[in-house]
Amino acid sequence: MLGYDRLIRDMHPRVELVEIRLDGVWLSRGSFQGTKRDFAEIENLLRQAREQVKRPILATFRTEGGHVSITAEVYESLVSQATRCADWVDVESNYPYLGMTAEQAAAAAENPHVQEDNEKRLTSLLRNIHTNGTGVILSRHCWEPSPNSEKEVSDLLIYQLNLGADVSKAAFSPQTPQQLANLQKGGQTTFLLTHRPTILIGMGALGQPTRLAGPQMGNWGTFVTVGGPQSAPGQLPLAQLELRYPASGF
């Protein structure tokens, strides 16, 4: 995460939304316990960012592929706290499975009663967020080689939209040209079916075309670096995106 002085200095007029990766703050600590001090630190961080960058703020605490442990209950409290200060929050659509082993999560996902309960829990959280006037990017990050079909992509994006997302985000890890094609076609199909905002990302070098072909895939936006390190594999610097889209707007 950039220091605030550097963040302001490097701020570009075409940056429309600033993501604050809260998990990065707790990376050295290994876990987020959800103490009063933790929540106060989050609120201060987001308020300071919002005041200084003069742009809408997206608060994200990434657990998928991350290195900071957190329980589902504490995650809910964290997201609720962030809505007080952020314009947008990222909510991971599989957060109810936090704290489970891979085997437990797989078994729970196959249980229709557990799945129904988790969906109710998720939609309840989203309703509370919307009550505060905060936008929701509902996300899922798939780190295994994927997607294996166009339908896999469109099903996930539409599922998250139906749960109440303002923007449905899906990040896959294509390892073959066919998987990349599945990703691109799935995004286009979703846009044609819904005409609703999505963010579709192919992580890694092979997936970089998805970060440049945003509007053609119905993408609401894309994530870039501005003077700092990547927060995801294959993320591009803003300067490279500008070469593709020199005019205003993404």
UniProtKB/TrEMBL annotation:
Entry EC no(s): 4.2.1.10
One Pfam family this sequence matches: DHquinase_I
Keywords: Lyase, Schiff base
Keyword Cell membrane applies: no
Transmembrane segments: none
InterPro entries with a match to the protein in the record: Aldolase_TIM, DHquinase_I, Type-I_3-dehydroquinase
A GO molecular-function descriptor: 3-dehydroquinate dehydratase activity
Domain of life: Bacteria
Biological process annotations from GO: 3,4-dihydroxybenzoate biosynthetic process
Catalytic activity: 3-dehydroquinate = 3-dehydroshikimate + H2O
Protein's name in the database: 3-dehydroquinate dehydratase
Organism: Mobiluncus curtisii ATCC 51333
